[in-house]
Write a structure and sequence with these properties.
The complex is a heterodimer.
Chain A lengths: L1 E2 L6 E5 L4 E3 L3 E3 L4 E2 L4 E2 L7 E2 L4 E6 L1 E4 L6 E8 L2 E2 L4 E4 L7 E3 L4 E5 L5 E7 L5 E3 L5 E6 L1
Antiparallel strand pairs in A: 2-5, 2-17, 3-16, 4-15, 6-7, 8-14, 8-17, 9-13, 9-16, 10-11, 10-12, 10-15
Chain B lengths: L6 E2 L2 E7 L4 E3 L5 E2 L4 E4 L5 E3 L7 E3 L4 E7 L2 E3 L6 E6 L12 E2 L1 E3 L10 E5 L5 E8 L3 E3 L5 E7 L1
Antiparallel strand pairs in B: 2-5, 2-16, 3-15, 4-14, 6-7, 7-14, 8-13, 8-16, 9-15, 10-12, 10-14, 11-13
The chains are: A mainly beta, B mainly beta.
Chain lengths: 140, 150
């Protein structure tokens, strides 16, 4: 791994507030970047970096419906869904905690548009938990 | 004319683990008693002597930590969390690079990953703790993987 002098090689971007979403397919919103990588000033669902990255993502939410909820989460790079996905299924009761059972990864190139997409099986109101979604990794 | 010169960091892997199962008798925050460490030559992580699993990180290095805490639960009616705390017992925040994991109500297993990303400017000690559940913390499945760059 090589970097520019004094560059922090870490990536840590997340949302420091909870937010609700009812659409079947949505993009995670972000508020905070601690190290390398930044949130687009005009669209808080878009992440960018002048450097190639190796990053992981995961999500965590509670939902307002019943009967459980299945969901998929993955990165979308320059408008294309990536193939490595995290999947999960909550318990049946309203308010159940949904979370990816695995984190998912992607490698990006310089200045690509990075989004974290979330797709669920029904349109019930879903509330992302504070400090999630999160994107963590290193400069490639 | 000027150019961007490159420097390079050497990544090292470190693994902390338990040599035996650990009883968790209180749902209050309980430090995972890591007692075994192995890693690449030259790494800067150690277990504090007498610290019951307290982890010491060297200054001026970059850390990305992944932790799992596998508890054989006494019940599954509450969430239980695994997270990093400072030595005064205060849980680190997301702004400090700490992201806890939660094992949800009704789930009997925790496959989720706690993560900590930070770059201390001075030697720093942290504890990896579980909260919200009693039971047996299993040595098979409870581990902390650290990627260190310097």
């Amino acid at each position: 791994m090589s970097y520019h002098p004094n560059q922090n090689p870490l990536v840590c971007i997340f949302n420091d507030t909870g937010h609700a979403e009812s659409a079947l397919t949505s993009h995670a919103e972000f508020t905070t970047s601690l190290f390398e990588g930044y949130i687009d000033s005009s669209d808080n669902t878009v992440l960018k970096s002048p450097f190639p990255l190796t990053i992981s993502g995961d999500i965590r939410y509670v939902f307002a419906g019943s009967g459980g909820l299945r969901s998929l989460s993955y990165f979308e790079i320059d408008g294309t869904d990536t193939s490595h996905k995290g999947s999960n299924r909550t318990g049946g009761a309203s308010g159940s905690l949904g979370l990816s059972p695995e984190i998912f990864f992607v490698k990006t190139e310089s200045n690509q548009q990075i989004k974290l997409e979330f797709k669920k099986a029904s349109g019930v109101l879903t509330t992302y938990t504070t400090d999630y979604s999160r994107v963590i990794g290193v400069v490639k | 004319m000027s150019y961007l010169t490159h420097s390079s960091y050497t990544p090292r892997f470190i693994e902390l683990s338990l040599s035996a199962d650990q009883s968790i008798s209180s749902s209050s925050a309980t430090t995972v008693n890591f007692d075994t460490i192995r890693g690449d030559t030259g790494h800067g992580v150690s277990l504090v002597a007498g610290g019951n699993g307290r982890i010491r990180f060297s200054a001026n290095r970059y850390y990305w930590c992944f932790g799992t805490a596998a508890i054989d639960r006494d019940s599954n009616t509450t969430n239980y969390d695994a997270s990093f705390f400072d030595t005064s017992g205060t849980e680190l925040t997301a702004e400090q690079g700490n992201f806890k994991s939660s094992c949800a109500v009704g789930n009997n297993a925790e496959s989720r990953i706690s993560q900590l990303v930070f770059s201390p400017t001075s030697q720093t000690d942290y504890d990896f703790k579980v909260t919200g559940e009693t039971g047996t913390l299993m040595s098979d499945g409870s581990t902390l993987i650290i990627i260190e760059m310097s």
